[in-house]
User: Fold this.
Amino acid sequence: MTLPVPRDAVAALPSYVPGARGGGGPQPIKLSSNENPYPPLASVREAIAGAAASVNRYPDMFSRALTEALAARYGLPEGAVVTGAGSVSVLGHALQAFTEPSDQVIYAWRSFEAYPILTRLTGAETVEVPLADGGRHDLAAMVGAMTERTKVVLLCSPNNPTGPAIREEEFEAFMQGVPPTVLVILDEAYVEFVRDPLAVDGRNALTRHSNLLVARTFSKAYGLAGLRVGFALGDPEVVSAIRPCVTPFSLSGIAQVAALASLEAEGELFERVDAIVAERERILTALRTQGWNPPEAQGNFFWLEARDEASALASHLGAAAPPILVRPFGGEGVRINAGSPEENDRLIAALEAYPHRF
Ligand SMILES: *Cc1c(COP(=O)(O)O)cnc(C)c1O
Assistant:
């Protein structure tokens, strides 16, 4: 039987590996997807329930109320904001808007696993620049990797999965080496968890660079991963090129309303972020006392560079009772996010029982 043949780029895509979810048996401790351990606030649940009454209607295609609220929140014109069904979608739309198959897209590696997939779907060539020591972006090497074919550079701060944030000073030095015709996308999915005072803040950097696009999400700090809301901030001309690429009506009305309610409850949500950050620091301190050597962690997760033992370490944690689910990257390391205090206690105990240290 002869069937239509998909594009070569599609056949060659690496697959996105979601964090393990666990099967039957005891309720696992899920620390594999960098999710927020807190359930939605009552005010957010009420907004979601209220919006359920009108799902027979299409949502506002332009997410006007949310766009307006985000513009006000970040002190930008509405034209500087574009929303989408998760920041992964927004990143994909930005790549679609700016890259041709003859272009190159540079990003650090290991970094967020969506980058090679989204880039190759556009047909553009991926250029992966190895991370420096400590899981940090090697920004000088990234400038060095640029050619006249480079169209987009993706930066991830804090870097998923290794943890460090990019510092403002190194970011500004990097931008000096980037021509204004190259789009720099700063993916700040975890920016609300950053406590390094020297870290770059994408919103502030926007005032200095019109070729910068900042991607943010409601999935992590705001705890809406299951509803899919992300957005990007940038120069209105850059943003206006991305808007037509957004799949019409992909950001549901329920998601729009939940994001709005979350912005209104930001104070309460950011207290939770503070608690997650405190837990992150408590875990890291405990692990360092046990002899582990995790790199600096500025997100809601940390990295253990277990290399050849990545799978063994994940299996060890998966064999705990209840099982602890983490995200191994074979041959490289294991990414683990901070959970509730009780979950983190179990994690610390299970890691103490592992025979080796990384
Ligand atoms: C979680 C994450 C996102 C956000 O994804 P959503 O599509 O908004 O859920 C984006 N970038 C990185 C690096 C992430 O880890």
Notes: Residues 34, 86-88, 112, 156, 160, 187, 189, 217, 219-220, 225, 230 surround pyridoxal-5'-phosphate (CB under 6 Å). DSSP finds 13 helices and twelve strands in the chain. The mean pLDDT is 96.
